[in-house]
Amino acid sequence: MNDTVLRLEDVAVGYGSAPLYDGVSLRVSRGELVTLLGANGAGKSTLLRCVTGRLAPMRGLVEVAGRSLSEIPPRELARLVSIVSTGRELAGALTVAELVALGRQPHTGFFGRLSRHDREVVGLAMAAVGMEGFAQRQVASLSDGERQKVMIARALAQETPLMVLDEPTAFLDVASRLETMQLLSRLAREEGKAVILSSHDVGSALRLSQRLWLISDSGVGRTLVDGSPDSLIKSDALGSLFRGRPVRFSEEAMDFIPS
User: Fold this and answer.
1) pLDDT tens digits, 172-222
2) Rounded distance, CA 19 to CA 165, Å?
């Protein structure tokens, strides 16, 4: 069985005529949590738009589950890739169970009725993130951390092999950021998902990710470096994340500190 869920081969990504990245070749397998790190404006969201099919590559091949994204109809793609975006969802009038149930739309259709199986999937998704006791709570009454768990549960209910999250901890406090990262690491491991997320939380990414994608500044343009946290620390690749800024990476602190 091939465990590769996402494959990028010699991909150029960007807008207009000049790519932000060129010659990108990456793999993500089941059970892996991959964190994309880079400075503000480095193009993290652009790369994630490419791997989720919302932005066509300028060149190269992007495959999910062995199929080219360019050949997958939108309804089928929604059964392969689930997305959790940065923005706060305007779903305050819905209950937690109703919002999570929206993840079943690729399987039931927009006006589809939930079957017994669908309801079981929704219940399991809420339980997986520890929100089963909140099923009848209105989303508007939740904290940011609780709301993020619900959005992750909705993506789980979609039952896709690939889950992509764009800065899922952006609005969370320190404890909630760590809890969310631990949750995603556990889901990748226990549910067999391939999970990709962008983040500025370097410390949590180093401790909980199987792999990192670093958008670094080579001095003449952006480069994307792929490797395990240990290998990237030893190679000093992390030092190029914020080139020219008054910070440096501390191996002892496992994070950036003032230089």
Assistant:
1) 999 999 999 999 999 999 999 999 999 999 999 999 999 999 998 665 567
2) 23
Size of the chain in residues: 259
Q: List Cα–Cα distances, 161 to 87, 137, 173, 210, 245, in angstroms.
A: 23, 28, 29, 17, 38
Please name the helix (run of DSSP H) or strand (run of DSSP E) that holds residue 248, with its range, or none.
strand 247-250
Global pTM reads 0.93
Could you tell me if 25 and 33 are in contact, meaning their C-beta atoms sit under 8 angstroms apart? no
- Domain at 4-80+161-258, CATH class: alpha beta
pLDDT tens, 81-132? Answer: 999 987 666 666 899 999 999 999 999 866 668 999 999 999 999 999 999 9
Q: Where are the domains of the chain?
A: 4-80+161-258, 91-159
> Which tokens sit at 40?
């503000």
